[in-house]
Write a structure and sequence with these properties.
Elements: H1 7-18, H2 31-41, H3 46-59, H4 63-68, H5 71-78, H6 85-101, H7 109-113, H8 120-131, H9 140-150, H10 159-171, H11 178-192, H12 210-214, E1 230-241, E2 244-249, E3 260-261, E4 264-265, H13 271-279, E5 283-288, E6 292-295, E7 299-310, E8 322-326, H14 337-349
Parallel strand pairs: 1-7
Antiparallel strand pairs: 1-2, 1-4, 2-3, 2-8, 5-7, 6-7
Helix pairs in contact: 1-11, 2-3, 2-8, 8-11, 9-11
The structure holds iron/sulfur cluster.
């Protein structure tokens, strides 16, 4: 395809022939479905998202079903996708849709963008795909395509660079057929204009791609300057008794907010003392498990797990934000994925 046709015309023609047409959130104008898929896709690849999306839609088929569900259920359905603030915002936004829009998910950009946790790009995608509104998107994939095609270097989280990217994204919008255009930008970013080794020979806009012509693909988009990796160390207690494990509810804000997790103690605290002081449980046996790490966006968490066998009755003091959960019920619980993995290993070891 040559450069005389507009960027959007080439992208639309490519999408119709080579793009994706069978994803479970496509072939619909249901803004609710599109919204859920957009939020799931924000930090996660399409193939990973598909089973989560299908399970989530089976459990919460309408915005009303999501709005009335307990937060624990929403977080449990999200468990494994990470970035749980997204799930909490989804839940809040669903309630707002019920209150402010009588349970009908809005389809205009302004109304969508006013919902909690919905950014400009997500609102643009939903307005375009569900409402046919001419709006630009700039998710991670679209950002890469636009930055390279327009030759915009620099860190995209910098406000000046970001403004330039939005202007370039808007300048490329088609006059009509915004739906295949928007989908085409997403598909091109996820299948062709890959972060490393993009498949430029298959790209419909290669003829006038500035980064390809200038040989600057690897430098665009520019990288964010990261502070030297911060590390935090904690210990976790795996207290298992009579087929049940002790879990604590995490505070609503911060990492893994609102999820159930293993009790945490300072890395240099004595597990038996902490267990007695905080939960009134006497330990009969303690053993160190293999430590592991979990990377968050801003730091790495080093976890030193201890397996504890309690001495006798595992009753908990009243008012404790803790509970015993049957190991058989772990599957459906709202747990952070590293905790789920650790418990899976422990359950296997018996
Ligand atoms: Fe991306 Fe290559 Fe296409 Fe440029 S030519 S937009 S770098 S895939």
């Amino acid at each position: 395809m040559n450069a005389r046709r507009s960027f959007s015309a080439r992208l639309i023609a490519w999408q119709l022939e080579h793009g994706r047409h069978d994803l479970p959130w496509q072939c619909t104008r249901d803004a609710y479905r599109i919204w859920i898929s957009e939020v799931m896709l924000q930090q996660t690849q399409v193939t990973t998202v598909i089973p989560y999306f299908e399970r989530f839609m089976a459990r919460f088929p309408t915005v009303m079903a999501l709005a009335v569900a307990p937060e624990d259920d929403v977080l449990a359905s999200w468990s494994g996708l990470g970035y749980y603030a997204r799930a909490r915002n989804l839940h809040r936004a669903a309630r707002e849709v019920v209150e402010r829009h009588a349970g009908v998910f809005p389809t205009t950009f302004e109304e969508i963008a006013a919902l909690p946790g919905v950014g400009r790009s997500t609102a643009g995608a939903i307005a375009a795909l569900a409402g046919g509104e001419k709006r630009a998107i700039l998710d991670a994939n679209a950002k890469r395509v636009i930055a390279r095609h327009a030759g915009i270097g620099g860190d995209p989280s910098n406000a000046v660079v970001l403004r330039e990217l939005w202007a370039a994204a808007e300048a490329r919008l088609p006059r009509t057929r915004i739906e295949p255009y928007t989908q085409g930008l997403m598909d091109l970013g996820s299948d062709v204009c890959l972060p490393r080794n993009p498949r430029c020979l298959l790209c419909p806009v290669q003829a006038d791609c500035v980064a390809r012509i200038a040989g600057t693909i690897d430098a665009i988009p520019g990288k964010k300057k990261r502070a030297a990796g911060r590390r935090e160390r904690i210990a976790m207690l795996v207290v298992v008794s009579r087929g049940e494990v002790l879990l604590e509810k995490r505070p609503p804000r911060g990492i893994w907010g609102g999820l159930w997790s293993l009790p945490e103690i300072a890395v240099d605290a004595k597990p038996a003392d902490a267990l007695r002081e905080r939960w009134g449980i006497e330990a009969a046996g303690i053993e160190a498990l293999a430590p592991f790490e979990h990377a968050f966006t801003h730091y790495t968490l080093e976890v030193k797990p201890w397996r504890v066998r309690p001495r006798a009755a595992n009753r908990l003091a009243q008012g404790n934000a803790a509970t015993w959960l049957a190991l058989d019920d772990l599957e459906g619980a709202a747990l952070p994925s590293p905790v789920r993995k650790l418990l899976g290993r422990v359950a296997l070891e018996g």
